[in-house]
Design goal:
Number of strands: 7
Shape: globular
Order of helices and strands: HHEHEHEEHEHEE
Radius of gyration: 24 Å
Strand content: 5-15%
Helix content: 25-40%
Amino acid sequence: MHRRLFLTTIGATAAAPALAQHKRPSEPNPQIDYGGFERLTGDVRRLRAGRLLPFARFRQLAASDGTLLLDARSETAFRDGHIRGAINLPLPDFNAESLHATIGAPGRMILIYCNNNFSNHQRPVPIKAAPLALNIQTFINLVGYGYTNVWELVDVVDFNDPKVEWVTASIPPLPRRGGGSAQR
C-alpha cells in the first residue's frame, strides 16, 4: 500500500511541471485578454477560410451598393496609392467608435486587402512577413468588434494593371520647417 501511495505521489510530482506549462497566469492588466485573443483568432480562422475572394469577384462586389472597400494600411500608404473607391481607416485607429463611424451597421459587407495582395513589392505596398500580413490582423479585429460580413482579396495582383484601378491622392507638399521661404 505504501508503495502505491509513493508511486502516485511520484507520478503527480512528475506531472506537475507539465501542468504548470499549460496553466496560464492571469493577465496583470485587466484590459488585455490574451486568452480571449487566442479564442477569437481560432474562430476567425474558420470564418476567414470561406471568405477569400479571387480578384474578379472582389472587384464585382466592391462595385455593389452598400459594400465598403476598407484599406487598413497607414494614412501615408493609402495616400501613396490604393484601390479606387477604398476608404482608409488605419488598423491602429480601430475602436468601437471609429469602426461604427466608418462602417455603420455591423451587417454591412466589408472587403479588405493589404500589401501582400500586390506583386509590386515597393512603396506603398512593400511585402510584409506572411504571418503578419495586415489582412489577418484586420479580419480578426473587424470580427472581434462584431463586423462579421468581412471578405478578403486572396489573389496577388500588380497595381499597374488597369483592372486594379490603382489611384494616388494628390497631396500638396508639406511646408518647410523653420518658417523660412523655400525660395531665396
